Amino acid sequence: MKNKNLAYEDAISKLESILEELEEDGCTLDESIDKFKKGIELYNYCNNLLYKAEGEVKILLEDKEGNMLDIEFPMEG
């Protein structure tokens, strides 16, 4: 997979571009299918990055007995 060194934010940006292109009327069926495949690949890549990040956060939030710490994070805004 050529996306493996892509930052999450860059992958999301590429995925958004593909979605915008698919929403336009100028794509042929073959182009649409190719873009759809690339979009699915990027989606899976981003999902995998989020899954790994979630695992890291859970590890960081465990106490010495393996229990999850109950931490409230402030909301933005």
TrEMBL record:
<keyword id="KW-0378">Hydrolase</keyword>
<dbReference type="GO" id="GO:0008855">
    <property type="term" value="F:exodeoxyribonuclease VII activity"/>
</dbReference>
<protein>
    <recommendedName>
        <fullName>Exodeoxyribonuclease 7 small subunit</fullName>
        <ecNumber>3.1.11.6</ecNumber>
    </recommendedName>
</protein>
<comment type="function">
    <text>Bidirectionally degrades single-stranded DNA into large acid-insoluble oligonucleotides, which are then degraded further into small acid-soluble oligonucleotides.</text>
</comment>
<dbReference type="GO" id="GO:0005829">
    <property type="term" value="C:cytosol"/>
</dbReference>
<dbReference type="InterPro" id="IPR037004">
    <property type="entry name" value="Exonuc_VII_ssu_sf"/>
</dbReference>
<comment type="subunit">
    <text>Heterooligomer composed of large and small subunits.</text>
</comment>
<dbReference type="InterPro" id="IPR003761">
    <property type="entry name" value="Exonuc_VII_S"/>
</dbReference>
<keyword id="KW-0540">Nuclease</keyword>
<comment type="similarity">
    <text>Belongs to the XseB family.</text>
</comment>
<dbReference type="GO" id="GO:0006308">
    <property type="term" value="P:DNA catabolic process"/>
</dbReference>
<dbReference type="GO" id="GO:0009318">
    <property type="term" value="C:exodeoxyribonuclease VII complex"/>
</dbReference>
<dbReference type="Pfam" id="PF02609">
    <property type="entry name" value="Exonuc_VII_S"/>
</dbReference>
<keyword id="KW-0269">Exonuclease</keyword>
<keyword id="KW-0963">Cytoplasm</keyword>
